[in-house]
């Protein structure tokens, strides 16, 4: 029986991405199940006390506690690492657990971080509020300018932290340039790749050291569970990240891991179709709204860079209306098909007003600095027929005078 072919590097390294997304990491039990099993257990039993001692000492291979290892979770970690082209992966309970852990595990008082200005609201809370509480310095830069990272770096700088495409402004970061600056200075580059996933963009191919994910988004892809992931070298995952996570416990449940495993099986199909749908919707909106930020459109100021780094532009983009919050909320309220929701990566089309939802927790001054105004709307285009999504936007735009 082919119980562990999905975990044998001599076999998996020859597989192409679509195959890795379905079979990578798979380990079958003695029952020979075709779909991955869910191991709902908190602990594990040992044949003798010596085995328990050997496992805790790292002298014997095997599970000890589901805060550290779980067969279902391990399959997901190996699958994501294969897709990413990384040596190892560690999953966590949510995307923000992953972002928090990947920073705190390698920083201490006196260290310094250079972070991109455009980011998810909670990520800006980490850089603007949490890290300074521990005496960690942070400089915020416009990540569209690679030179800004060079200029902001100090002898005590330990991490470059940025997202591309960025949420929700769709800023694109020159991965090759910024990661080269980090490598030259011995700085760890950490890339939030949640919008693109490894199906569309693999930052490590451009020199990134670490990638971090909200697997809640496109990896699950159907709005079901929370999950996060961090990919890097085996040394980073085992010796820097793992000591932090094993003792603080941001553990991904086996059930959620199983759901994301099922999501990965269709990731490539979903994200490419949603990218195609989003491009059609973007082209329609380009002629109807004052401003659109879609990296797949030639009107995006960094379109060429985005297409050089990404296989497709993804499902998410932003538009700006001139009528501020009143007009933006009016458009949302007029929608009949598209849901008002702050989530992204779902197979359903979703739309939100970042200033009053995802980025409500940061100050108005910070929102302005990030490029988020009261007229901005972010849309996640789903798997519906794009003509129906366009028709819904058309009637909603008409109701707010556009």
Keywords:
single chain; 402 residues; alpha/beta; Aspartate Aminotransferase, domain 2; Aspartate Aminotransferase, domain 1; 2 domains; 7-stranded mixed sheet; 5-stranded mixed sheet; globular
Please provide the count of β strands: 12
The largest sheet has its strands arranged as 1-7-6-5-4-2-3
The fold-level CATH name of the largest domain is Aspartate Aminotransferase, domain 2
Share of residues in helices: 40-55%
Basic shape: globular
Give the oligomer, counting copies of the same chain as homo and different chains as hetero.
Answer: single chain
Write the CATH architecture name of the largest domain. 3-Layer(aba) Sandwich
Count of structural domains: 2
One letter per element, helices H and strands E, the order comes to: HHHHEHEHEHEHEHEHEHHHEHEHEEHEH
CATH class category of the largest domain:
Alpha Beta
Q: What is the terminal separation in angstroms?
A: 62 Å
Task: Decide which structural class fits the backbone.
Answer: alpha/beta
Sheet of most strands: 7 strands, mixed
Query: From the alpha-carbon coordinates, what is the Rg to the nearest angstrom?
Result: 22 Å
Structural topology:
Layout: H1 9-12, H2 17-23, H3 49-56, H4 71-84, E1 88-92, H5 95-104, E2 112-116, H6 121-133, E3 137-141, H7 146-152, E4 157-163, H8 175-185, E5 188-192, H9 197-200, E6 210-214, H10 216-220, E7 228-232, H11 234-248, H12 254-264, H13 267-286, E8 291-293, H14 303-309, E9 316-320, H15 324-334, E10 339-340, E11 350-352, H16 364-370, E12 376-380, H17 386-399
Parallel strand pairs: 2-3, 2-4, 4-5, 5-6, 10-11
Antiparallel strand pairs: 1-7, 6-7, 8-9, 9-12, 11-12
Helix pairs in contact: 2-4, 4-12, 5-6, 7-8, 13-17, 15-17
